[in-house]
Amino acid sequence: MKQIAIYGASGHGKVVADIARLNGYDDILFIDDGIATYLSFERFVQQQLDIPVALGVGNAQVRARLYRRCREHGLSIETLVHPSAVLADGVIVGEGTVVMANSVVNSDTDIGKCCILNTSCVIEHDNSIGDFVHIAPQVACAGGVKIGDYSHIGIGSCIIQGITVGSHTVIGAGSVVVKNIENHILAYGNPCKPIKELTS
């Protein structure tokens, strides 16, 4: 029997659990402090279960908080890759990252810790993706793209080669990014343009 705990029992957590099953985990526990039918984190720690934890929360700030909480208690954070995903030679995938179905990550790309590479995204060669980034379904990043920590690239967006997207930045769904986008910015459109500054 191969056990894992998914921290977060939302819809995203259920998708992470499916990927865990496909990686051979046949005994899956859910941890969620907000749903009484699941184990709270405190109870999970008290049970002293020697099993890895995968993060099942989509929100980057919450995911970072849960990651720090797990590390403070010495828990092992699992990285999960869907069997249908393609990771080329030279790809580095950080601790706690989840790579979902049909995603493609090409050569010499560095993915930070606790990222979400969502369904059918394409990350081309020589990309640098920061920590706690969410690449939404069907996003396409051309070669040499850099994305800062905590940023979110909305569903179906395209980023042309060599572009830098700053940290704590949100790119709206369906955007075509042809110029660099600074830190703490909400931007969207075709072409993608800064809309407003984000304060958190």
UniProtKB/TrEMBL annotation:
High-level lineage: Bacteria, Pseudomonadati, Campylobacterota, Epsilonproteobacteria, Campylobacterales
Signal peptide annotation: none
Residues at the site labelled Increases basicity of active site His: 126
GO molecular-function terms, A-Z: transferase activity
Alphabetical list of InterPro entries matching this protein: AcTrfase_PglD-like (IPR020019), Hexapep_transf_CS (IPR018357), PglD_N (IPR041561), Trans_hexapeptide_repeat (IPR050179), Trimer_LpxA-like_sf (IPR011004)
Keyword field contains Repeat: yes
Superkingdom in the source lineage: Bacteria
Domain PglD N-terminal: residue ranges: 3-69
Protein residues bound to acetyl-CoA: 134, 155
NCBIfam families noted in UniProt: NeuD_NnaD
Pfam family, one: PglD_N
UniProt name for this protein: Acetyltransferase
Keywords of this entry: Repeat, Transferase
Active-site residues per Swiss-Prot or TrEMBL entry: 125 (proton acceptor)
Binding-site list for substrate: 10-12, 32-33, 58
CDD domains: LbH_AT_putative
Family the entry assigns: Belongs to the transferase hexapeptide repeat family.
The UniProt record lists the keyword Transferase: yes
